[in-house]
What does this fold into?
Amino acid sequence: MRLKLEDIPESCLAMVLSYLDPPEICHLARVNRAFHAASSSDIIWDPKLPSNYKYLVGRYLDAASLGLLKKDIFARLCKHVPFDGGSKQVWVDKSTGGVCLSISAKALSITGIDDRRYWNHIPTDESRFGTIAYLQQIWWLEVDGDIDFQFPTGSYSILFRLQLGRVTKRLGRRVCNSENIHGWDIKPVQFHLTSDGQHVVSQCYLDNVGRWEYYHAGDFVVEKPNAETNIKFSLTQIDCTHTKGGLCVDSVLICPSNLRKNYGSTV
It folds into this structure.
């Protein structure tokens, strides 16, 4: 008698599936009932979860979620979970299990943000947070962030999501208004990153008119898996010999360094 796929013991299927990444496991779960049952095994999903998943569930989901199957916990964490009044989001990368954070412009400290002569909050569907900060003109540009978070061990990157020019929709088409863009070709912007004694400074010129880009501010390493890490970061252009304007600030992304390439970041 010839064996069929559904005749393979569930434990054997689970062992095979454990070598695959989560999207592949979910794809094979549709093959038949045996694969579907095996794909729900905690043996498969426990190593896929980040080492700090209990911290993430307890702080950003709900304690009851810890009683779910590991597969369901993974699925919940893969969704962008808002916190701090919706100004920040945390999620787990579905392919690697890496922990990512996104911090909106509203959660950043921006010099002059309350003066509409300089900055405006603009609603847009091009941001996961629904609004961006738009700089009309200023002499002193300073955007600061400060966050405490418990990361799994590893290397992480800080990326600023920026765009030159204000985009609107006309007859369904994306149109960029570039009339206020000035000052970015005179001096580069600087990025600063500080975390647990690590300090990184980098700089670059902004030239991304009409398109969103992730600018790489630097990397930091987490060595203590069960303690919160403090990260301070900033974007500045404080040469007051000239004004600058026309800059859109959407958010800051913190992600495992091996995922940086997924965002096409500018070095």
